[in-house]
Specification:
With about 290 residues, the chain is of the alpha/beta class. Helices cover about 50% and strands about 15% of the residues. The chain contains 10 helices and 7 strands. The chain is globular and about 55 Å long.
Length: about 290
Amino acid sequence: MKYPVPGKTVVVTGCSTGIGRAAAALLKDQGWQVVATARKDGDLESLSAEGFFAVKLDTADAGSVARAADEILDRLGGTVGVVVNNAGFGQVGAIEDLSRELLDYQFQVNVIGMQDFTNRLLPAMRRQGYGRIINISSVLGQVSLPYLGVYSASKFAMEALSDALRVELRGTGIAVSLVEPGPIATAFGENAAGRAEATLNADRTAHRAYYEAELRQRKMSGIRPARFTLGPEAVARKILHAASSPRPRIRYPVTLPAYLGLIVRRFAPARVIDAIMAKKVTRTQGK
């Protein structure tokens, strides 16, 4: 197969586990030169041992973003074919319980750092006249979920940035795609529950009953996956298509709930969506 990206070089962020790790492995198996980023030294050592060019990147840290972009461009000789923006996390919590610091950190990691990193690599893509930007969004970038409102907001923002950037880059040879997973068998739910316990004051909230039920459910997500859950390899296959296709799609839903989310967002009245979400809250609380 002839790839539209000369050199087949790809940067994948957030490769510690889950979608990022699966995407990096699949692309490497397909003959791509993979730059894999992570925040923790132990994960970087593991990635290096598996044959990846591992780079430290914390998207919440502007200095880390600048250093990582410079290191990657230097290592790749000033060129980069594909950027997969996967690094991110989900902050659980009712909107009224989220401090300014929690709101800011969610956007620093999922939106501002992601776009800053991309912007630092875009000049190289423009000079080359080709490139792919693949942003890992979520079905929650289409439909906002209660108690994951700030995470949903960050993915809505990613979708808006991607849509604008795609048009701004028209005619440059650089394509922008969004991958929108639904439930995927990763540590996302467990990690989100752990962060919520560490950051929310569960004793001083009107939502305590919900937190107790929801966080317990999220901790069990690895043991009892939600219906229609797929493995991270399903997302990796969509990423490979977006990276290698001469005409990559604008959006790649993954799992049935992701496809349904797009339909609901487009056709369902807002009050119907509210009623569906309210039932989920009631069911989780057991009231």
